[in-house]
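Please check this one:

***
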Amino acid sequence: MIAIACFGQKKQHLSAIDQLYFTDIQTSAVQHFFESNSDLINEKTLEYISSKYVQTANPDTLFKSVNIIYTIYKLSSIIEMKEEAVETLCKNCNSNEVFLKSEIYKSLRKIEKRHFTVVAIDLLQNNLTTKNSHLNELVLLLGFAGNQETKQVLENFYYTENINQRTKWYIHLALARLGDMNQTEYCINKAKKLPVDDFFMYEVLPEIIYIKQPQLIPIFINVLQEKGKNCTNADPENPQQMHCGYRLIEIIAPVFINYPFESTPSGDLAVSDYNEARIIVLDWLENTTEFLFNHETY
């Protein structure tokens, strides 16, 4: 009788998961649901979602599936459970549904590096093919989450597959992120040749920052030392150009663990005077002896 009662309770709990799919709810509501039903944060729920819902072609259902799996990862306090959730996301990276892949990669970029197991990394590496609709995203994800074996996998892919110049550039970045000093030098030298302007700040800098290596510091210092105002103002109603360093001190904030300023949820710095903040960050970059890069985040 006890076994039958437990089975009935488990079935009832899983049916509660079904209601998440049949109801038009926001992301925050999914988190609230699992906070109120913490007993559902388990491997059985992950298996249930994968077997019943991930195989569908309905975009809304796919979105909810990835959202639920990521929420389980986010709320679980058990490392093994977090790793299982990450592996579940990685297992579905080989889906033919472009929308599903896109949502999975978005979620994986929010995962901490330490929660990517060898199994998860292998699953990602198995999707490294020119037929992958999200190849460039995958390459950068591997640079973030990968290990020493990943370096060899990316190098082999670079030299044996017919890939375009954009993908080759992302492989250079990924290898630099993985600690290849030759690739780091290659990427840094490419960036140094470009003038500091809107293109550099909004297109080049976000990509080059991804490598999170100390060789970036001279580039940051160079931008902050610029005398002119070569960037379009962030305020569309203000026609005056602004110092490109204002953009830099915002974008590099999440890169460091020991950065002088905190970022707001919108990505701005929690400061009242950006020019004063620029000077403070410049002084910090010039005089700090050890920079602590946050390698746990994408």
Remarks:
- DSSP finds 15 helices and no strands in the chain.
- Residues 32 and 71 are 10 Å apart (CA to CA).
